[in-house]
Design goal:
The protein is α+β, with helices and mostly antiparallel strands. Helix content is about 40%, strand content about 15%. Strand 7 and strand 8 form a beta hairpin.
Amino acid sequence: MVGWTGYFLRVNLSTKTWKKEAFSEEFAHKWVGGRGFAVKILFDEVAPGVDPLGPDNKFIVALGPISGIPSPNTGKAVVAAISPLTGFYGDGNLGTRVAEHLRKAGYDALIVEGRAERPTLLFIEDDKVEFLPADEVWGQGAYACNDWIYAKYGKGVGVLNIGQGGENMARFAVVRSLEGRAGGRPGIGAVMGSKLLKAVVVKGSQPIPQADPAAMKILGSGDLRKVGQIDKQTGWSIQSTTGVLPFCNEVAGLPVRNFRKTHHPDAWKVDGERCNNARVATYGCPTCTMRCGITVLDDEGRESELDYENVALLGPNLEIFDLPQVASLNYLCDDYGLDTMSAGCVLGFYADAIDHGVVAGDFSFGDAKRAKELLGLAARREGSLGSLLADGSLRMARAFGHDSEAYAMQVKGLEVAAYNCKFIPGQALAFGVAAIGAHHREAWIITFEIKHTTRDSYGPEKAAKVIELQRIRGGMFEFLVSCRFPWIENGWPLDNYPKYFNTVTGLQWGLDDMWRTADRIYAMIKLHYLRQFPNADRRGDYPPAVWFDPSNADTEGPIAGKYLDVDKYDGLLQHYYDQRGYDRRGIPTKATLLSLGLAEEAAAVEKIASLS
């Protein structure tokens, strides 16, 4: 086996033991890495019904065969666990030097089991593993923890850590790394916190196995330069992802006032031009030549790294249009280790519920001061309100009652990313069928939908586009593991990625092999879901009910009087199922599972829930 180290590092925090564990070439070729490794390990090793915040859950850091090898944007790692927010498989990726160092230490994945007796830092250096006390930084934010680690080990090490949100098991706590990198929206940081694992630090010194390292060095370094040159020509990094805000506002796709509104005249105050004008620094992931981390000063003079998602959901979604205040909310989320997207949706839902009289409270849209206080309450789980906020919008809605779940902006428990699909059916489908809940990472089809189709179409072409993008974005980039931005934003051809894979592994894969692997991984995540929720039906693949509500339609603007048609959406969903080979519940059929080489997994699920 070439192109993989061939080993996982399995660590037990309860017993303070570890072992280097070999995996087979067959396993590597079938699951490749990253999301593929994580979904298979968790399916095999974590029983259905396990408490996601209990010691029997596992925290996974998984890498792919091109992770950490200098080539366009490969400084990425996947973090995964059974999600405390959604109750089934959850993951995320983030830029981190762990991608390089863990592989140089000799491992393609880290599997963390059990629960430590005290706050712990896990230190990995090649064949050495140490369980070190982290009491000194327990209770501190991610920034202070990062600084403490750098002071002890140097800035070149790989770091994953959590803030107070993870420590107190807020269900949307993330894993943090570097300046503003975060991943694991479905509460993967809370799983670290449940294990009293404050941080993972990795130093590796061995070469990463490659079939032709000389050829890969020439190919990768050359392509890094080319992507950087393209970025300079396109100017994408000038505004990076924040540049999409004016487009969303113009086409009535911006989340405003808990997604009640789709555009706002003051949105320009926090758009990409304003972010770029306020820039004081720029950060990016390792092996990146198109750095997207626009950093501005918040209202207290702290550096806050912004992107479109956090600006839109902590800004317009809360009707806050003061950039330093939005930056302050973002800084607090990053320091507490809270997902900015879920945080914005949770606060928006809370203000909306107060507006509708279903709960008493002192928070309203536009109140940045109180929003900051509420983030602190959630991160510390302080009082009944803090615990309620920390549990996420779906659990909040079920506690509030009065049909408030209709406007809790989530799918399967994961809050919706920053695209208002009140009248964007294809993107609504993308949220509904995203593998882990409403994540834009899986498929972003807004530009295709608005520029290349009829916006009010619910035809099979939109389902086909969602599947195409899932195979690329949630599939290939998540198991190789690499960032999607060179392709998305600068048109870097997709056929470069099999080239990197083949140069590293010595195999001869094409894009069709990538898509088959992606389909296998998506089917496995569906099996995770069915195993946790054996009575699941297609309603689990619906977006928030408020998007189907005629009374919620815009009264002015480009989509005045428009809203999603529930029957047509159901037809669009069926197109997706038919093209995927799923049954009417949205579960892969036996025939589909067998065609993807998942006979053993199908048999395991069949014991709990029937398959078509």
